[in-house]
Write a structure and sequence with these properties.
Blueprint lengths: L5 H16 L5 E5 L2 H29 L1 H6 L3 H30 L5 E6 L2 E6 L2 E6 L4 E9 L2 E11 L2 E6 L3 E2 L1 H17 L1
Antiparallel strand pairs: 1-2, 1-8, 2-3, 3-4, 5-6, 6-7
Helix pairs in contact: 1-5, 2-4
Length: about 190
């Protein structure tokens, strides 16, 4: 769940600043092409299918001795398990297909340097100083705690969400931006 509470964003920002402290600049991120996005989604689906297959095989192995004595229990045990695994997998595949159909490559390249950002959009480079950049930290919160996932960057070129969903190396560029903005504010 994407959260917007200030305390959670602040914790995620601190996480990004700690990561940025050990980072060397420049950091470059670029938007994914349509083919790269589809490849990324296929990889995710393959891992989901593999996980479902392993769980199904484990379930079959766990009830194997019982199945040999009463084969009719196959449908009672395996069918609901396959439904519980198959329905979420089907929803994931449909969501990814819908997302891939509507995806348009923004053709952005972001280079984070010590003096600011260079944003290349449609072949035109824009050098933007740190003073002209605003960023909002994006995070997820779960049982394991708060996780920094990226940043929504406001710049004179426009606003964009910088994360690993549609950018190659996007999370690291977001870390560098949050760290750079923090250093300007503190220093």
């Amino acid at each position: 769940m994407l959260l917007d509470q200030d305390g959670e964003r602040e914790a995620a920002a601190k996480q990004a600043v700690r990561l940025a402290a050990s980072m060397t600049l420049p950091v470059v991120a670029r938007s994914l092409t349509h083919e790269e996005l589809i490849g990324q989604q296929r990889t995710l689906v393959r891992w989901c299918v593999l996980g479902a297959a392993i769980i199904t095989i484990g379930l079959i192995a766990a009830v194997w001795s019982e199945l040999l004595r009463t084969p009719w229990k196959v449908s009672i045990i395996i069918a609901p398990a396959l439904l519980l695994l198959g329905v979420p997998l089907l929803l994931i595949v449909r969501w990814h297909r819908r997302r891939a159909r509507t995806y348009r490559d923004p053709q952005l390249s972001i280079r984070v340097e010590a003096d600011g950002l260079t944003i290349t959009k449609a072949g035109i480079a824009h050098a933007i100083p740190w003073s002209a950049i605003r960023a909002t930290v994006e995070c997820y919160s779960g049982r394991s705690g708060i996780q920094f996932v990226g940043a929504t960057v406001q710049s004179p070129v426009g606003a964009f969400r910088l994360d690993n969903d549609i950018f190659e190396n996007g999370r690291w560029a977001a870390v560098a931006i949050v760290g750079g903005l923090h250093n300007r504010r503190v220093g």
